[in-house]
Design a protein that fits this description.
With 315 residues, this protein is α+β, with helices and mostly antiparallel strands. It is built from seven helices and ten strands.
């Protein structure tokens, strides 16, 4: 492995994710994406492991890979397909966060060779409305069905053609149809930008080298993490913090973590936190946020220099 070339590839893959985010922000319709920048874009290898993720929304860092895994496991993807989902039980956070996943296949102009799966690209954006009982889909709700339309992994684009029936079904269940349609189109366009850039990388350097250095980045991230953990004395470290309230009562909500360091491994335990609440405004699965918080803190705050944005720091 050439360490200089490794850094070049880290920058290449990160720049692809960043350009996807730039495209999404500039072409989106809603202020949620254009101004508040509540979105994330990422590049994945053929196995669905993160290679690079743009510097966008930290809460998406740990959960988006779960959505990509769900999309890969639920849909047999072909060239030109795009899978859409927002289901919290398939790696989603809350329903307004809609994820799109697109496979990147090799391109043969003569069409004499069967396309080969190379990468996946994905993005997640907070839509200003996803249906439900309250405009904005962020109001009081005691069950997921009150929040909005729940989308399992389904193909929104099939072999390069928009699946009109699916798209119309989604748009019929949200407020602000024109704005939602524009944001969905922006997400799809950003995926195309990412796919085109990755194909340019493959055409310039060859897929074998690009794929090999993608694997090196994943392994490098794990190695940095393990070295950092080894530098921390073995033992159990604890901390706690409190939310002001749960939105229903004035009682503070305890968030407690216990981290047990043993050699180059760590066990993160949130079991000391408050019990499940009846709050009307917290509708994401706790596992997604626990994974995201752990992943983000481990990948950024603890690292000097930071580890690449790969799946392996949480391994």
């Amino acid at each position: 492995m050439d360490s200089i070339k490794l850094e070049i590839y880290r920058s290449i893959y990160s720049s692809v994710a960043e350009e996807m985010g730039m495209s999404l922000r500039r072409t989106a319709f809603s202020p949620n994406i254009k101004e508040r920048r509540d979105y994330s874009c990422a590049v994945f290898d053929r196995q669905g492991r993160v290679i690079a993720q743009g510097d966008h929304m930290p809460v998406h860092l740990g959960s988006m890979p779960m959505s990509v895994k769900a999309a890969i496991g639920s849909c047999e993807m072909e060239p030109g397909d795009i899978v859409v989902l927002n289901d919290p039980y398939a790696g989603g956070t809350h329903l307004p966060d809609v994820t799109m996943v697109m496979p990147v296949f090799s391109r043969d102009q003569k069409k004499t060779v069967k396309p080969r799966l190379l990468f996946f690209v994905a993005n997640r954006a907070h839509h200003a409305d996803i249906g439900g009982s309250t405009p904005g889909s962020m109001g009081s709700a005691t069950e997921i069905y009150q929040e909005g339309i729940r989308i399992p992994p389904i193909k929104l684009v099939r072999r390069g053609e928009l699946v009109g029936d699916i798209f119309n079904l989604l748009l019929a269940n949200v407020r602000g149809r024109e704005e939602r349609e524009g944001d969905f189109a922006a997400q799809m366009g950003a995926l195309q930008v990412g796919g085109d850039r990755l194909l340019e990388v493959v055409e310039r350097y060859g897929f074998n080298e690009a794929d090999r250095y993608a694997r090196y980045l994943v392994d490098y991230a794990a190695r940095i993490m393990r070295l950092k953990l080894e530098s921390i004395p073995d033992g159990t470290y604890q901390a706690q913090e409190f939310l002001d309230n749960d939105g229903e009562t004035d009682d503070p909500v305890r968030i407690a973590v216990s981290i047990t360091i043993s050699g180059d491994g760590a066990r993160v335990d949130f079991s000391g936190s408050a019990r499940k609440l009846q709050a009307r405004s917290m509708r994401s699965r706790p596992s997604q946020f626990q994974r995201s918080i752990t992943f983000f803190d481990a990948s950024s705050g603890a690292m000097c220099p930071p580890a690449p944005e790969s799946s392996n720091p949480s391994k």
